[in-house]
Amino acid sequence: MTKNTEHQFSMLVRELRKEYVGNGPKEITTRFIDSWAISEMKGNLTNIEKFMMNSEEGKRMVNEARTEFVKKIYQSSDVLAKFEELVQAKIVRVFSDINIEEDIAMTIFVFDKPLKLRSK
């Protein structure tokens, strides 16, 4: 795998977020570290979500909806298969969280073997 694979991984995350959530993050960076793929995303929230955050109840609703919805995306075997095919490793678990005040989300994909960066 090359740095290009990290970029392809980021684009896959963006594509899936756009498909399931309605928009993808404005910025995304993925790094492979041992058996982890760590994706940091900035600019995730929609205009409606930003508007909802004008109240404490709205903040709670946006945080809960984003957290639970993203977890459900990564429960799909079809979604997981796309990542596994790209890096040739099986996903063991996925961790995801969002800080809605800073509009930064992190997803950590844990694979069954190290994701070694190789030159072409």
Q: Would you write up a description of this structure?
A:
This protein has 120 residues and is α+β, with helices and mostly antiparallel strands. The chain has one domain (3-111): Threonyl-tRNA Synthetase, Chain A, domain 2 (2-Layer Sandwich). It has 4 helices and 4 strands, in the order αββαααββ. The protein has helices spanning 3-21, 47-52, 56-73, 77-87, and strands at 27-33, 36-42, 91-99, 104-111. The protein has a 4-stranded antiparallel sheet with strand order 1-2-4-3, with helices on one face. β3 and β4 form a beta hairpin. It is elongated.
Secondary-structure blueprint:
Layout: H1 3-21, E1 27-33, E2 36-42, H2 47-52, H3 56-73, H4 77-87, E3 91-99, E4 104-111
Antiparallel strand pairs: 1-2, 2-4, 3-4
Question: What's this entry about, in short?
Answer:
This protein is α+β, with helices and mostly antiparallel strands and 120 residues long. It has one domain: Threonyl-tRNA Synthetase, Chain A, domain 2 (2-Layer Sandwich). It has helices at residues 3-21, 47-52, 56-73, 77-87, and strands spanning 27-33, 36-42, 91-99, 104-111.
